[in-house]
């Protein structure tokens, strides 16, 4: 007769391998943070599709591992969260993004593109987030409104009181706030208006389903029109096709982020992308 124990045995070596691998990665991540230079922000353009203008970027973290190559955030952010390393990583991301915004500020006082930085739950719960933001603003002297902090809908819902308080304080400094992955959590639409934020990012899963059915299409339209009623901006995430852009433009969505315009780019390529759009806008 098969017992639980008999069943479990074949998995033990594999579990051991996973634990070792994870331990390796953790040690590597600690080393990378101490050494510097391996963690790097990429920037994915966000386009204003109503006015055909460059709006800004989302900063997305990459790890250039010396032997593993480019490691995806999906593979190390959860580890960084569990170990608390995300707090130090996040602090550096905010400063690096602010430095990049400063570099993208046109000489003579034009507005730089807005850059959104992801803030994880652990970072949000830790003390010092507000200090990190203020510190980055002071060092780089960027306009506060050019820095946006992106928090997920589920993070907001985990602790609504604390979140509202912190988001209010972030916005009081003049920085922007966006709610990421909207629609994947459990917030009721009727409570949304109580949260201080500037932008709603409609999750890619809704954009994908837009073409599947009338319902899929209407759900995106309802989210977009609700955001409009609340006077919040909308970013459609993960847009890959031109027909999606056309549909979103027709329903009044302002901003699009996705492979249809560009994948996330290293800073130098993002700079070239920005120059190209600025030139186009001047012509
Ligand atoms: P996210 O914040 O929802 O970021 C959007 C993800 O969608 C990015 O994956 C981006 O590369 C991808 N994406 C963009 N356009 C398209 C598209 O048209 N099609 C498809 N299929 N995907 C698209 P990425 O860069 O792998 O990041 C994954 C997740 O890792 C992020 O999801 C975010 O939760 C987390 N992350 C990334 N950077 C940071 C960071 O600096 N801090 C924190 N806390 N989390 C980060
Ligand atoms: Ca995000
Ligand atoms: Ca997202
Ligand atoms: Ca996501």
TrEMBL record:
All residue ranges annotated as the EAL domain in the record? 22-278
Claim: Phosphoprotein is one of the keywords in the record: no
Keyword tags: Membrane, Transmembrane, Transmembrane helix
| rRNA-binding found in the keyword field | no
> Protein name, please?
EAL domain-containing protein
Lineage of the organism: Bacteria, Pseudomonadati, Pseudomonadota, Alphaproteobacteria, Rhodospirillales
Shown stretch of the complete protein: 751 to 1033 of 1041
């Amino acid at each position: 007769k098969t017992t639980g124990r008999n069943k479990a045995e074949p998995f033990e070596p594999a579990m051991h391998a996973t634990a070792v691998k994870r331990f390796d990665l953790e040690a590597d991540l600690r080393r990378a943070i101490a050494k510097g230079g391996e963690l790097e922000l990429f920037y994915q353009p966000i386009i204003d599709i109503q006015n055909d203008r460059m709006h800004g970027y989302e900063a997305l973290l990459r790890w250039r591992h010396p032997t593993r190559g480019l490691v995806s955030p999906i593979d190390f952010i959860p580890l960084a969260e569990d170990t608390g390393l995300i707090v130090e990583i996040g602090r550096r991301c905010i400063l690096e993004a602010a430095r990049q915004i400063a570099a993208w500020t046109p000489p003579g006082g034009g507005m730089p593109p807005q850059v959104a930085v992801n803030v994880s739950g652990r970072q949000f719960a830790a003390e010092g987030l507000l200090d990190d933001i203020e510190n980055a603003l002071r060092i780089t002297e960027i306009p506060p409104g050019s820095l946006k902090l992106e928090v997920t809908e589920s993070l907001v819902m985990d602790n609504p009181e604390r979140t509202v308080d912190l988001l209010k304080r972030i916005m009081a400094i003049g920085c922007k706030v966006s709610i990421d992955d909207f629609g994947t959590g459990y917030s009721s639409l009727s409570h949304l208006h109580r949260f201080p934020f500037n932008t709603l990012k409609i999750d890619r899963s809704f954009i994908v389903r837009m073409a599947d059915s009338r319902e899929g299409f209407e759900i995106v339209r309802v989210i977009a029109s609700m955001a409009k009623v609340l006077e919040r901006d909308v970013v459609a995430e993960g847009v890959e096709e031109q027909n999606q852009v056309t549909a979103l433009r027709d329903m009044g969505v302002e901003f699009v982020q996705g492979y249809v315009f560009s994948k996330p780019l290293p800073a130098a390529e993002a700079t070239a992308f920005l120059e190209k759009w600025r030139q186009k806008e001047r012509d």
